[in-house]
Amino acid sequence: MPDKRTAKVISITNTKAECRDCTLRELCLPLGLSETELNAFDRLKKRQRMLRKGELLYRYGDPLKSLYAIRSGAVKTTGLMEDGRIQVTGFCLPGEMLGIDAINDDRHPCSAEALEITEVCDIPYLALEALAQEVPGLQHQLLRIMSQEIVRDEQMLMMLGRMSAEERLASCLISFSRRHARLGRNGAEFKLSMSRQDLGDYLGLALETVSRLFTRFQDEGLISVRGRHILLRSLDRLQALASGGAGGRSVHA
Amino acid sequence: MPDKRTAKVISITNTKAECRDCTLRELCLPLGLSETELNAFDRLKKRQRMLRKGELLYRYGDPLKSLYAIRSGAVKTTGLMEDGRIQVTGFCLPGEMLGIDAINDDRHPCSAEALEITEVCDIPYLALEALAQEVPGLQHQLLRIMSQEIVRDEQMLMMLGRMSAEERLASCLISFSRRHARLGRNGAEFKLSMSRQDLGDYLGLALETVSRLFTRFQDEGLISVRGRHILLRSLDRLQALASGGAGGRSVHA
DNA sequence: CGTAGCTTTGAGTGTTATCAACTCTCGTGG
DNA sequence: CCACGAGAGTTGATAACACTCAAAGCTACG
């Protein structure tokens, strides 16, 4: 996958990164920091770099050096079972953080792979923890983000444990929609950066099932699909589906 | 469920609790704190109280006041779907912590219910966060515990997303075994404090499936079951089962 | 323009859910 | 001490949802 010919084009790697100038400031780790705190945080030497599609940010077992923030693009994190089965534990979009599950024992318990050209921001962890000791707002924000990750995982547990295939895909689409909207993009129309296989490995479904569901949702007028291009046509009915509502008909709660 | 007659017996509630005297010190939040740090931590006013079977420690939506550590007994945490379906997101045994998923937005995103007589330790959260700001070891330990929770949830995702019913129950039994052993108890023999229904709601299975699996495991000589009393007869073969090994035969890796 | 990988679609199967009846256990009160 | 009842657990029959295997259609990239 590494391609020699484009290598020098990517030498934009290892630029210094400052949050004060970043458009994602208010969606990312620095959210809620005061002016002073933000300045302190920007003294932390963060690195910005670029990953090509398929490149790994870190790999299962790697020692924890940094946490990562996505600036653009998309990343999937995958856990591996002994017998080779894969579970995608999450997709990361811009403004979201990555790697906090490594704090527990200083090693990454999963691998992270870029799904497209992706800019990430390295935040050296030891320095971050030290700084959080000084800056109350930062400690709080760090704890908050970790707690949020736990909540997300628990919602995912609910999804995998108790939802039908249909409900899972509907929830997933709604989640993507919300996260796109958060970035100021159109929440009703977006391009998936992951394959059907990845979606299946995330939702606990076979890729064929995911594919069939896309066609079904389209036939029912819920969405339009062309390959990875998605248009949500009825968010209401999707939402009803996602929460176990009666077979896709919209429900007036 | 609340029973007037036993009420005054339970008035051991609201005792002050000190970690220095607690046998679980090395398994719980204070793990790894220095003598000085532990003293500082003990200045935090923690409360000890008792829950009877069925009592709720907190309920979905409650504001975050404290984190909780289990001293004895067992607790289950449950998320609820709009249509009433339940997902048990975890079981908590002594030495384990509870409530950290509430930090994200200052409300508990799930309910916590005692499965038997249970002693818990209230750790007021605001004071804890403030203290963590002063005591580096404590901040670190707090971050570590949260990260650990994320790792656990991710393993659970793998389980629900990719494992068969058989593999799920085997993993679950092994997990209980390890956690009992950690407490210095016999890891091969223990009493489940939860119903088949609870186990099903945790593993994403119907209670009937759980029941059938117990009988099957027993027939195959993997375990002995009498109601909630479990004896693990072949940890090796269970382990093989849990990791997708060939139908229960022991595998020489 | 060809090829490799991704996606769709179909047919058949299997695991697990659901529904229903029966049994066991344990706590309660007679 | 025994009888009773309720909740928990077991077992069986049936059905559905999603998986697997297989093949054909697309897309995108070189």
From TrEMBL, chains A, B:
CDD domains listed in its UniProt record: CAP_ED, HTH_CRP
TM annotation in the entry: none
Positions of the HTH crp-type domain: 163-236
Annotated Cyclic nucleotide-binding domain residues: 41-120
Keywords: DNA-binding, Transcription, Transcription regulation
GO cellular-component term (any): cytosol
An example Gene Ontology molecular-function term: DNA-binding transcription factor activity
Protein name in UniProt: Transcriptional regulator
Taxonomic source organism: Candidatus Muproteobacteria bacterium RBG_16_65_34
